[in-house]
PAXX non-homologous end joining factor (Hucho hucho), 213 residues
Amino acid sequence: MIPDHQLMPTPTQNMDVNLPLTQSSYCTVVDKKDQSKLICFTHTTSGIFNVGLTNASDVWSKDFTEEALNQFRQKFALKSTEDYILKIRSACGSGSVSVLVQDTSAVLYVAASPGDLSVTLSRLKEQEAKEVLRELLFRMADSLTHLNNTGPASFSPGKSPHKRNTDFEPRRQQQSGQTMAVKKRLPGDSLINPGTKRKRQATGVAFDDEDDQ
């Protein structure tokens, strides 16, 4: 379906305007009738460019073969398929993309006036819709996984060595303080038995002069 203002490209993204589109993109759009939200997405499978729309229950879809896509480009004076996606993404960011859901179809409007870049999508049968939703779910999960793997390294407070050091530092300091209090040797203390005074070696017997007389 349509590109999102938060574009999530797949690992095989190809931005060469002369080559078939090989990126998936997503955005939310609003139904003109009841203001409900839907997901619009685009992707290419086996050379077929697809624009899709879903409310998480029903699915509307439009396939473009290379020939049909060229006609679409000429009709709307587009330089490439990527040009169409850029227009959709820009419109999503400005809020100028909308949808009109009907009984068996849905019309996607990319601009303020209904005649600008409008695409009519057909409603899929229940079983086919389930399969499309399943594939869409996994494509979005793969896109998120790719973004997580190529983005900044995730930070886990529970696994951070700095966090562990902070948690245990006060306890270590406390234990260290207790140990130092026990082992601290004061001047004159015995090295063998801390806490007892060291005995000095005898140097001889001293006699008083009065005793000699």
In short: The domain at 25-130 is CATH 2.170.210.10 (Dna Repair Protein Xrcc4; Chain: A, domain 1). The longest strand covers residues 37-45.
